[in-house]
């Protein structure tokens, strides 16, 4: 007696998606219960002289186990993703009021002193920091000499500067002999608020910009 394999296309389709609501069409336990009822019905109506093929039964049971296993895995992964998102939001709230570092060339000013940081890709024999306006006009330069690779800070006395410091930037030039060394300027900003974009945590900074938390290079 030939028994047609159980059509699990609907179950397979359900295994590729997840839902926060466990209804009878997506709940792995409900799907497995329907399968077992159908299998029992097949066994009750089989021809005693020509019983079900053991290989077919094994194949069908393997199919339902695979589908329900995938569905359970999808639900578990979705729960983990939701928990991770919640943890990110909590972590973001704890950063409000703190200062963070991100790529940028703005200087932060306090008590007449401008501060900035930068990363050097390698050792440099000569490092120079130019303080420039938004239009690129150099207002002062700081010779920092030789520096090792890594993160460095720079301070500038702005007490004698007559213009507005809100538009000032800094530019780092580093060389090792005749070879240029990559320097990445970092800006220090205070976190004012947090948010979310495409499932990723974002930080609103006091300089008016918004950065993805993944782009934060340090917390001060």
From TrEMBL:
It comes from the Bacteria. GO terms for biological process: bacterial-type flagellum organization. It holds the Pfam family FlgD_ig. InterPro entries: FlgD, FlgD/Vpr_Ig-like, FLgD_Tudor. Keywords: Bacterial flagellum biogenesis, Cell projection, Cilium, Flagellum. Residues 104-177 form the FlgD/Vpr Ig-like domain. Residues 87-216 form the FlgD Tudor-like domain. Required for flagellar hook formation. May act as a scaffolding protein. Belongs to the FlgD family. This is Basal-body rod modification protein FlgD. It comes from Alicycliphilus denitrificans (strain DSM 14773 / CIP 107495 / K601).
